[in-house]
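#structure-requests
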Amino acid sequence: MSRIPDVHQPVLRDEVVRLLTKVPGQTIVDGTVGLGGHAEGLLEASEGTRVIGIDCDEAALSVAANRLERFGERVRLVHGDYRDVRAHLGALGVERVDGFFLDLGLSSFQLDDANRGFSFRYDGPLDMRMDRSAGRPAADWVASASAEEITDVLRRYGEERYARRIARRIVEEREKDPVDTTAALRRIVHGAVPNAYFAGPIDPATRTFQAIRILVNEELESLRLGLDAGFSALATGGIVVVISFHSLEDRIVKGFLRRKAASCVCPPDLPECLCDKEIEAEILTRKPIVPGDMEIAGNPRARSAKLRAAKRIG
């Protein structure tokens, strides 16, 4: 089993524990258990709590297994995608759960491993897969996608203003040498954007790396399917908690919870309601919970985190 990284700091841990440990004897799904930081907090907070931890990253699961070993049978760890949560629960003989939690951020454990290819700060293979036993590495897509396809992905998943310029440069450069390392991709992006872009608060390659990572791992599709599946697995009174880290994720989470809390989802131009929808949830966070200054100072990667939560009532 892998050692727990010293730098691992679960974001908004106290808030997650407060929302998900209202009563003893609960079963909570941590759909992105990662290194086990949030799961550990939940298990420590209540002796009766049980956690089913799901993650598609086998290396992270190994760390979580080591970290949570002391809790014995109160923990079950599953290698897989949280969007398949109903199938995972069925395999464990569990029909309903009392909590469903997602932390959509990458951990330092993943970002700081050059071999994973998530970060441009370290030179390594351009992989980016959460589950290295499935899918294809980012380098394969970069090598074969057309300029139009690359432009679309950078705009849609990275909200990159210079998407077309970056896409053209990628196509030009890969004709000379393979774009199969993080350093090569970062160099191409830096060469494609105007000098003024370097004056911003983030590296010019950030949005490109984000967009390609989201594509490779089908992250937004997993989120949409996972929210539906996780909510459907909740018992009445169960709580869903999601921490997102960029606007695309937060938009999906916010929209999902609003629809569940709405009494009508008919188009606004209809003169009367025809959907007969019942209210399914009560939103618990009128505004998203965000980290305080102290937490951000100790963990700068937490600065963009937004936590939203709701209770199932139908």
